[in-house]
Amino acid sequence: MAIRALLGAFGSRSIATRMASYSRSLSTLVVAEHEGGFVKASSLSAVEAAKYLGEDNSISLLLAGSGRSLQEAAEHAASCHPSISEVLLADSDKFTYPLAEPWARLVHLMQQKGSYSHIIAGSGSFWKNILPRAAALLDVSPITDIIGISGSNLFVRPIYAGNALNTVRYTGSDPCMLTIRSTSFPFGPVSACSFSNAAFVNKVDLSTFTEDDVVGKSKYLSLSSQDTERPDLGNARVVVTGGRALKSAENFKLIEKLAEKLGAAVGATRAAVDAGFAPNELQVGQTGKIVGPELYMAFGVSGAIQHIAGMRDSKVIVAVNKDADAPIFQVADYGLVGDLFEVIPELLEKLPERK
Ligand SMILES: Cc1cc2nc3c(=O)[nH]c(=O)nc-3n(C[C@H](O)[C@H](O)[C@H](O)COP(=O)(O)OP(=O)(O)OC[C@H]3O[C@@H](n4cnc5c(N)ncnc54)[C@H](O)[C@@H]3O)c2cc1C
């Protein structure tokens, strides 16, 4: 086993920024996601994380796909983060769709070409699908859900639904493959960033990438994307979450209306998702999305540990619950014992319209 558990007792907030780094010759490949011509915020968080691996870390960012949006994403990547030294562009219709098999082969190929010391990706479902396959091809053991980095081989990650933190030392061979929680390595507004020292953009030579590399068991059918009007749940500044107490999908629209008024993303507990009040991609928690907004508002949410695991890093937590003993109040900064069916309409009435 390449990973050795060492300790487990760090405070949970801002660990990434508190830990020191030490230097050694490093080169990191950040495997990135892009959408609509922009590199996703979670991938820029992976670049942020790479900075903590040590000084003199040369950071390359890999983008794959095809068409105009890939070219636009490459331009964005080249100027969006001062630590990126090179943007690598795998431009082929083999990567138009997010299928795990060809993408895992691509990561394998990139490692063969670049001999990176580290490969880093965000913790989202996209890379969760790909990275373990790439790690198997490279015969290394990945470390997932990193929230703190203290040098090139020492990482902190939550265990037991976030109730304990584990520090692990990577003792395997290169590359050390990591997925990071973007809430622990925040990077500023993605669309606005621009630096004068633009990174080089280099095309990846895919001549050795054969049809066999593309063949796999998965097949692309269609892509359903969330409502683009709303902020992305994983990166939103404000999240409004509803629980089972909403009782129906119709009532859950109260949460959506409040979110709209606040310019917030909508979240849901697993109980609300299982009951069909909200779609699966809105689930916050251990088996849903991990969020860390400035403001998290929970309505009719009991505060089960599996839910807390997904939102405990929020800066300010507001909870409204009928039951004064609900566990959610233990993590809330502001708590209101009350009926959400009275509180939300009152908030909707009193909050000013968004401009
Ligand atoms: C392996 C595993 C993984 C899991 N992963 C997740 C996960 O990722 N995310 C997640 O959320 N859960 C997860 N769960 C489920 C979790 O254990 C809880 O069952 C779930 O979070 C409860 O959701 P809830 O708070 O909406 O419902 P409940 O626990 O039923 O709580 C409803 C709350 O609403 C309050 N309430 C009722 N009526 C009103 C009202 N009118 N006004 C105000 N308050 C009211 C009640 O007092 C109560 O506290 C997981 C469970 C397991 C076993």
UniProtKB/TrEMBL annotation:
Gene3D superfamilies: HUPs, TPP-binding domain. Pfam families: ETF, ETF_alpha. InterPro entries: DHS-like_NAD/FAD-binding_dom, ETF_a/b_N, ETF_a/FixB, ETF_alpha_N, ETF_asu_C, ETF_asu_C_CS, Rossmann-like_a/b/a_fold. Its main location: mitochondrion. Keywords: Electron transport, FAD, Flavoprotein, Mitochondrion, Transport. Its cofactor is FAD. Residues 28-218 form the Electron transfer flavoprotein alpha/beta-subunit N-terminal domain. Binds 1 FAD per dimer. It is found in: Mitochondrion matrix. PANTHER family: ELECTRON TRANSFER FLAVOPROTEIN ALPHA (PTHR43153), ELECTRON TRANSFER FLAVOPROTEIN SUBUNIT ALPHA, MITOCHONDRIAL (PTHR43153:SF1). Heterodimer of an alpha and a beta subunit. Belongs to the ETF alpha-subunit/FixB family. The electron transfer flavoprotein serves as a specific electron acceptor for several dehydrogenases, including five acyl-CoA dehydrogenases, glutaryl-CoA and sarcosine dehydrogenase. It transfers the electrons to the main mitochondrial respiratory chain via ETF-ubiquinone oxidoreductase (ETF dehydrogenase). This is Electron transfer flavoprotein subunit alpha.
